[in-house]
Amino acid sequence: MNYRGPQRVRIDEKPEPKILHPQDAIVRVTRSCICGSDLHLYNGNVPDTRVGMTFGHEFIGEVIEIGSEIQKLKVGDMVIVPFNIACGKCHFCKQGLFGNCHESNSQATAVGGIFGYSHTAGGYDGGQAEYVRVPYADVGPTVIPPGMDPDDAVLLTDVVPTGYQAAEMGGIQKGDTVVIFGAGPIGIMAARCSWLFGAGRVIVIDKVEYRLEFVRNYASCEAYNYEEMDDPVVFVKKTTDWMGADVVIDAVGAEATGNVMQTITGRKLLLQAGSATAAHWAVNSVKKGGIVSIVGIYGPTDNLFPLGNVVNKGLTIRANQASVKRLLPRLIDHVQNGILNPKALITHRVPLEDVADAYHIFSEKLDNCIKPVLIPPSAR
Amino acid sequence: MENKTPKDYSHIKGWGIDADPKNDPTYPMKHRTDAEQEGYSWERPTQQDINIEVLHSIERPNVTAVFGTSEPPSGLSGMIRRYAFKHSENSYLHWLPLLMADRVNVVEGVIDDFAKGTVPNIFAEKGWKADWEHNRSGLIQKVGVLALVTTAAVLLLTRKKD
Question: I need a labelling partner for A155 at 20 to 30 A (CA). Which of A206, A330, B15, B23 fits?
Answer without folding.
Answer: A206
